Structure formats: structure tokens, C-alpha cells
Amino acid sequence: MANSKRQLFIKRRLRVRNKLRKVNNGQPRLSVHRSSKNISAQLIDDANGVTLASASSLEKDLGVVGKNNVEAAAKVGAAIAERAKKAGVTEAQFDRGGFLFHGKIKALADAAREGGLKV
Predict the structure, then answer these.
(1) Is residue 64 assigned to a domain?
(2) Domain containing 44: what range?
(3) How far apart are the first and last CA of the chain?
(4) Cα(65)–Cα(38) distance, integer angstroms
(5) In a domain, 91, yes or no
(6) One digit per residue, pLDDT tens: the chain, 119 residues?
(7) Of 8, 24, 29, 54, which sits with the fewest C-beta atoms within 10 Å of its C-beta?
(8) Is there a domain that residue 2 lies in?
(9) Are 30 and 43 in contact (CB under 8 A)?
(10) CB contact at 8 A, 52 and 31
């Protein structure tokens, strides 16, 4: 029996997460979640189990509420890079979850890199 899209997504997410655990070296994890309407990112310190910074397209100050496009993802990426600097984080491991690295996910990662975050 063929795997459903959801099952394939979960397998990809677990594969990415396990690889990150092996190479993490105590760095925070930049976790990205994309829904059908919004995109969000979190800097997570897994050692202490705390979120260091977060950004979402739901935030009104970013000016992208209700937009789910590449430009909105880029603004979220720039915001998370700025907030990471304020939190004293310069490097992070990029956790794309089960999402493929293209389109909105790639735009968010590129904007975070341009903002000075080593991802």
C-alpha cells in the first residue's frame, strides 16, 4: 500500500530532526512551520527547552497579515534574524521540518542569512 502525503511528510520531518540532533553541537534550532495561510519561525534552545525568539506572518507589525507568499516569508526571515541578534544568537541549525527546501521555506532561510544569522 502506498504512503499517504501525510505519512511521507512525517517521515521527512523525523529524518531531518534526527540528522539535526547528530550535528547540533549545542546550537539553537531555527524551526519553520508553514500552513496554508501563514508561515512562522522559532529559534529553539533544545538543551534548555526554551524558545529564544520567534516571528510569524500573523504579526501586524510585519505588515504581511493574510499573505502567504514568498515576500511574506522573506519578511519573517528578516524579522527572526533581527530578533536572534537581540537574543545574542549568531548561528543556528535550520530545521525545515517535513517541508521541501524551495519556495517560501528557501525565501525565509535566505532572508535570515542576509539578516546576519548563520543558518
Answers:
(1) yes
(2) 27-114
(3) 38
(4) 8
(5) yes
(6) 578 999 999 999 999 999 988 888 889 999 999 998 899 999 999 889 999 999 999 999 888 877 778 999 999 999 999 999 999 999 999 999 999 999 999 999 999 999 999 98
(7) 8
(8) no
(9) yes
(10) no
CATH of residue 39's domain is 3.30.420.100
| Tally of CB atoms within 10 A around 87 | 13
Q: At which residue does the C-alpha cell 506572518 appear?
A: 57
pTM of the model: 0.90
Q: In what order do the strands lie in the sheet with 50-56?
A: 50-56, 39-45, 29-34, 93-95
Residue 23, pLDDT score: 86
- List 33's β-bridge partners, or say none: 40
In a domain, 13, yes or no: no
Q: How far, in Å, CA of 110 to CA of 117, rounded?
A: 10
Q: Work out whether strand 29-34 and strand 50-56 pair parallel, antiparallel, or are unpaired.
A: unpaired
Cell of 52: 529564544
